[in-house]
Write a structure and sequence with these properties.
The structure is a single chain. This protein is of the alpha+beta class. 26% of the residues lie in helices and 17% in strands. The chain has four helices and three strands. The longest helix has 18 residues. The chain is globular and about 50 Å long. The mean pLDDT is 84. It comes from Exiguobacterium indicum. InterPro entries: DUF3885. Pfam families: DUF3885.
Length: 153
């Protein structure tokens, strides 16, 4: 089953190129950390306790959602301005543990408007352990905080 068939079968008519998923039926909003903020109060200093809890809750959620024997699609969307190629876009696939998965990545491009282009990369993985998901989750948590590592470029 290819990626489009998988989406159609499990989620009906869904468009992953939509700008926002907030209002979609299949979206659940989860507060990972309560009563803490990314920065310490009245400071620009990183609140390490916030990120520690965010990593823990994110990993628990991921592990609860995906069973050991279950295959999953790993999808990356890269937004770029027209004419500017994102050379580092596929570096996120370094988180794939199996070399053969890197050769099965499917690629789609879509122009959102005159200015913005979205490139979608998708690969079907045999299970969650084919992905270094703990490091990937950390990088996602760090996306707005350049001093924190690991991170995406």
């Amino acid at each position: 089953m290819n990626f489009e068939q998988y989406l159609q079968h499990h989620f009906g008519k869904v468009n992953l190129f939509d700008r926002s998923f907030v209002e979609k039926d299949f979206v659940i909003h989860v507060d990972l950390v309560k009563d803490l903020y990314q920065l310490k109060k009245n400071s620009d200093e990183i609140n390490e306790e916030y990120f520690k809890q965010a990593y823990q809750k994110s990993n628990e959620l991921f592990e609860d959602l995906f069973r050991e024997e279950e295959s999953l699609y790993f999808i990356v969307h890269v937004r770029s301005e027209r004419g500017k190629y994102q050379k580092s876009a596929t570096k996120v696939f370094r988180h794939l543990k199996r070399r053969e998965d890197q050769y099965n990545i499917k690629f789609v491009e879509k122009m959102m408007d005159e200015e913005e282009q979205v490139s979608e990369y998708a690969v079907l993985l045999p299970n969650k352990n084919a992905l270094d998901y703990k490091r990937l989750i950390k990088a996602i948590c760090h996306q707005d905080f350049p001093p924190l590592q690991p991170r995406f470029r």
